[in-house]
Design a protein that fits this description.
The structure holds 2 protein chains of 2 kinds.
Chain A lengths: L8 H5 L13 H16 L6 E5 L14 E4 L5 H11 L4 E7 H7 L1 H10 L3 E7 L34 H7 L4 E6 L3 H13 L4 E6 L11 H7 E3 L9 H9 L5 E8 L5 H4 L16 H5 L7
Parallel strand pairs in A: 1-2, 1-3, 3-4, 4-6, 5-6, 7-8
Antiparallel strand pairs in A: 5-8
Chain B lengths: L1 E10 L3 H14 L3 E7 L6 E11 L10 E6 L2 H7 L3 E9 L1 H4 L8 E3 L2 H9 L5 H13 L4 H11 L4 H21 L18 E4 H11 L2 E6 L6 H10 L6 E4 L3 H14 L2 E7 H17 L3 E7 L16 H6 L8 E3 L4 H18 L2 E7 H5 L1 E4 L16 H6 L27 E3 L13 H22 L4 E4 L5 E6 L3 H12 L4 E6 L1 E3 L9 H7 L2 E6 L5 H10 L5 E4 L8 H8 L15
Parallel strand pairs in B: 1-4, 4-5, 5-6, 8-9, 8-10, 10-11, 11-13, 12-13, 17-18, 17-20, 20-21
Antiparallel strand pairs in B: 1-3, 2-3, 2-14, 7-14, 12-19, 16-18
Classes of the chains: A alpha/beta, B alpha/beta.
Bound molecules: thiamine diphosphate and iron/sulfur cluster.
Chain lengths: 292, 585
């Protein structure tokens, strides 16, 4: 069982949102719980965080806690999240997405978010299936799984988000499992504390639509990466990222601290957030002169 | 006096430099200037031209007749020799064009040789061409000197002098060899009014800048890229972040995110890119996040004519997206309007928390106009958001609170303990998702039905220009403003004619302030002029007001209306009975 330093319960209470409408036993519930504990542990207040989510079961996440929320479109979490951080780099921004949302509909945005390397964290609730639309294959669904829309079973290989992220030199790459609360909470904290774009792929069971990758299935396979794993070693990270089958490593797979976009962009680097920089028409009116 | 100079050649030959120097020079010399460009979708080669018209009376369009044609290649001579005005001259370098044209109306000027002889630098051949034009027009080189000094100040006096020597040599050559030149340009006086020379692109950019735009995200697509370049350039000096998104979907979602976070933001694209933004448009509407979207039209479907012009996206903008919500569509007709309407777009978008479009096109993007000046003070800048102190003072905060006006308090997330919550799903006042029928009804009332009449009241009526009780009304919208105005001005001398121009299109203007429908109904002839094949504005007009135009003038070959051509079309409007189905209405 998870045990932690005693903190006043009221703080956890601050993150109590609407009652989740997820199925009993759904991995999302555990992810939500780990998140709240991580927030309490980090001492972040609800209004100091903005969660951007997409559409899917995972997309409902921010409504079940308390924080600033932009629950946008399917697949479009990352552009919104990055822009919020660009104009207000004091704001901690978390994007929450499903595997279909982030790897399918929004795949292109993920590639470019990794390149931009803004200080934004993304939790991908990876249940290897589409939950909200009732069980179609997602980009991470195992080959062969039969669904209503894949009557012959999925005919191609699943994508490997961890290997993709390492290949993209994403500055923080981790995998969690909803069933390992203690580790998941730590990973969330590390990701939220990491300066730069941080991706956590969180394996999550869907009790209703994924009868293949069940809680038990994950439980038997997931193992925490040991202290001997050097997360700054890209080749080692690659090997670890490629491991997905009988054994699935969880933990920080790759970490490459590098400058973030907000540190490189002169308009905001070492300056107040854009949203707080003063504006007056007089400051810009001189630009008309060039056209005389 | 009304002269038109055209510079034609291949992409990469520097015709743009010659054109823009001449345009600025005429403007500086106190003349009214109108320029327009025509280029192919290629970086080198092809046939492009830049037309500069200048006069001592206001101009707002291009003519088809050319007085001086500076031909940088043979194609230019062949393509445009039939467009020469009586007494006009084709100026060319026999060495480059590899042809000696005999007879009247040709002036061979060895640009390159003169550049070498005078300045010892063949790169100066374009300056020689500029000088030759000035020589033919009998204009002095003083203003050119000032311009070159400004332009090349960074490169040093030597470069300026070299250019000047080249220009002078060109001017001298032209003066000596063009005895037949009959151009008469009145001398400039020291009291010549100070005028701006501005194109549609810079006007939109300046308008955005003066409106407090802080964030611009876009994916390059002609003819909207100019605005992105303008904003990127400004970001070096002013507090403004410009991000080149991975695609248009990201661009509009970024603009929405930035606006949610508390700054004024904008995105821009052309029709093809806008197709990708449509879902985001609906997101802005549902979350009531202000956003300004610049759409530069070009001929479509699909990739169409990338560098040419059309007014083919009006109905798309009017109807794009799933669901029902208010949207603002402003379609400027001139750089001046583009400046002020961009300001209006930002103001209304934020005041009513709705998406606002600036609908322009390739033609307006590139045309340069002279104007007396712009007044940023006329752009209403007001921060409608609830910021830190005021937010803190609110006992409860609800992002989507019901109000009499439908406008809820728009707060900056993170500025206080109050949470800012919004959702693309239907939501309650707090921004949390709901599914009940009652909340849905109240939210639609709030977002759409309450706001719409208020926004409509902000929309200015169309501009009536010309006769008081016109027999003929020429109607149009957006970038056809200038050519319609000049045409109507000329036709007014002999006919009872007026123009009705719409630059604020959606919500469709009401008739409270000005009953334009009455003007149309009282007229004998009503003509709708549009740069598209199916008379989209006329269709919108019919849907919104029930009014049907008597006839239509449409152009859809990717080129703008030119003055003489439109004059001919409108010359006898009563005879212009529309053919059944012709306009597709
Ligand atoms: C543009 C668009 N396409 C499709 C949908 C329908 N849709 C909603 S959620 C979803 C997939 C959700 O799967 P995933 O992202 O894996 O999240 P989960 O529900 O499993 O948490 C789809 C296809 C939509 N809302 N928007
Ligand atoms: S369908 Fe699956 S993902 Fe959705 S709530 Fe139920 S268990 Fe969770």
């Amino acid at each position: 069982m998870f045990r932690k330093k005693v903190k006043p319960v009221s703080e956890l209470e601050e993150f109590r949102g609407q009652n989740p409408a997820w199925c009993p036993g759904c991995g999302n519930l555990q992810i939500l719980r780990a998140f709240k504990l991580a927030m309490v542990e980090l001492g972040i207040k609800p209004h100091e965080l903005t969660i951007v989510s997409g559409i899917g079961q995972a997309g409902k996440f921010p409504h079940y806690t308390r924080c600033n929320t932009f629950n946008g479109l399917h697949g479009r979490t990352l552009p919104v999240a990055q822009a919020i951080h660009l104009v207000n780099h004091d704001m901690r921004v978390l994007a929450v997405a499903g595997d279909g949302d982030c790897y399918g509909e929004g795949g292109n945005h993920l590639l470019h978010a990794m390149r931009r390397n803004l200080d934004v964290t993304v939790f991908v609730h990876d249940n290897q299936v589409y939950g909200l639309t009732k069980g179609q294959a997602s980009p991470t669904t195992d080959e062969g799984m039969v669904t209503g829309t894949q009557p012959f079973g999925v005919l191609y290989e699943p994508m490997n988000p961890m290997a993709l992220a390492v290949a993209m030199d994403c500055s923080f790459v981790a995998r969690g499992f909803s069933g390992n609360q203690e580790q998941l909470q730590k990973l969330m904290q590390a990701a939220l504390e990491h300066k730069g774009f941080a991706l956590i792929d969180i394996l999550q069971n869907c009790v209703t639509f994924n009868k293949l990758n069940t809680f038990q299935w994950y439980k038997e396979r997931c193992y925490p990466v040991g202290p001997e794993h050097d997360s700054s070693d890209r080749e080692a990270a690659f090997r670890m990222a490629l491991e997905f089958g009988d054994r699935i490593p969880t933990g920080i797979i790759y970490r490459h601290p590098r400058h973030t976009l907000e540190e490189a962009l002169p308009e905001i680097a070492n300056r107040e957030p854009l949203v707080h920089q003063p504006f007056s028409q007089e400051d810009v009116a001189g630009e008309l002169e060039r056209y005389y | 006096m009304d002269y038109s100079i055209m510079i034609g050649g291949q992409a990469g030959q520097g015709l743009q430099t010659i054109g823009s120097v001449l345009a600025k020079l005429f403007s500086r010399s106190g003349f009214h200037v109108f320029t327009h460009q025509d280029y192919m979708s290629r970086i080198r080669g092809g046939h492009n031209f830049y037309q500069v018209r200048f006069s001592d009376h206001p101009l707002s369009s291009s003519r088809s007749l050319v007085d001086i044609l500076i031909a940088l290649d043979k194609t230019t001579v062949e393509e445009h020799r039939d467009s020469m005005a009586p007494g006009g001259f084709i100026v060319y370098d026999p060495d480059t064009v590899k042809e000696d044209y005999e007879g009247e109306g040709f002036l061979g000027v060895p640009f390159r040789k003169i550049a070498m002889d005078a300045a010892g630098n063949r790169l100066m051949e374009n300056t020689v061409a500029v000088g030759a034009a000035l020589g033919m027009l009998g204009m002095g080189l003083k203003t050119l000197d000032e311009l070159l000094t400004e332009t090349f100040a960074r490169k040093g006096r030597e470069v300026v002098d070299q250019n000047l020597v080249a220009a002078k040599a060109g001017a001298d050559f032209a003066r000596e060899n063009c005895g037949d030149c009959r151009f008469a340009v009145p001398g400039t006086t020291a009291t010549a009014p100070r005028r701006m020379l501005l194109d549609g692109t810079a006007a939109v950019g300046l308008g955005a800048l003066m409106s407090g735009c802080r964030f611009y995200a876009a994916y390059p697509m002609t003819p909207s890229t100019g605005v992105m370049n303008f904003m990127a350039d400004q970001s070096r000096k002013h507090s403004l972040v410009v991000e080149q998104a991975e695609d248009e979907i990201a661009a509009i979602n970024m603009a929405i995110g930035a606006s949610f976070a508390g700054v004024r933001s904008m995105t821009g694209t052309a029709g093809g890119g806008f197709a990708l933004m449509v879902e985001g448009l609906s997101l802005a509407a549902m979350t009531e996040t202000p956003v300004v979207i610049f759409v530069g039209q070009r001929p479509a479907p699909a990739t169409g004519f990338p560098t040419r012009t059309e007014q083919g996206d009006l109905l798309n903008l009017a109807h794009a997206s799933h669901g029902e919500f208010p949207r603002i569509v402003l379609a400027p007709g001139s750089p001046e309007q583009a400046f002020y309407l961009t300001g209006k777009a930002f103001d209304l978008a934020e005041k009513y928390q709705v998406p606002a479009f600036i609908l322009s096109d390739q033609y307006l993007a590139d045309t340069e106009w002279t104007l007396d000046g712009l007044d940023p003070g006329k752009i209403n800048y007001q921060d409608y958001r609830v910021r830190a102190g005021d937010l803190e003072k609110m006992e409860i905060y609800r992002r989507h609170a019901y109000t009499e006006t439908g406008i809820s308090p728009l707060a900056e997330p993170g500025a206080s303990r109050h949470l800012v919550v919004t959702d693309s799903d239907e939501h309650d006042e707090d921004g949390h998702l709901v599914e009940d029928a009652e909340t849905r009804n109240r939210m639609v009332d709030k977002r759409l039905l309450r706001k719409l009449p208020l926004i409509r009241d902000e929309i200015s009526p169309p501009l009536l220009h010309g006769a008081e009780n016109p027999e003929t009304v020429v109607c149009g919208w957006g970038s056809t403003y200038g050519v319609m105005k000049e045409a109507v001005d000329q036709l007014s001398e002999s006919a009872s004619i007026a123009m009705l121009h719409f630059s604020e299109i959606l919500p469709f203007p009401g008739t409270k302030v000005f009953d334009y429908l009455e003007v149309l109904r009282s007229a004998k002839n009503t003509v709708c002029v549009e740069n598209n094949a199916t008379s989209q504005f006329a269709r919108l007009m019919r849907a919104e007001t029930g009014f049907e135009f008597g006839s239509h003038v449409n152009r859809y070959d990717g080129r703008p209306f030119l003055l003489d051509e439109l004059l001919e079309e409108l010359g006898n409007p009563s005879a212009d009975v529309p053919e059944e189905g012709e306009a597709g209405v």
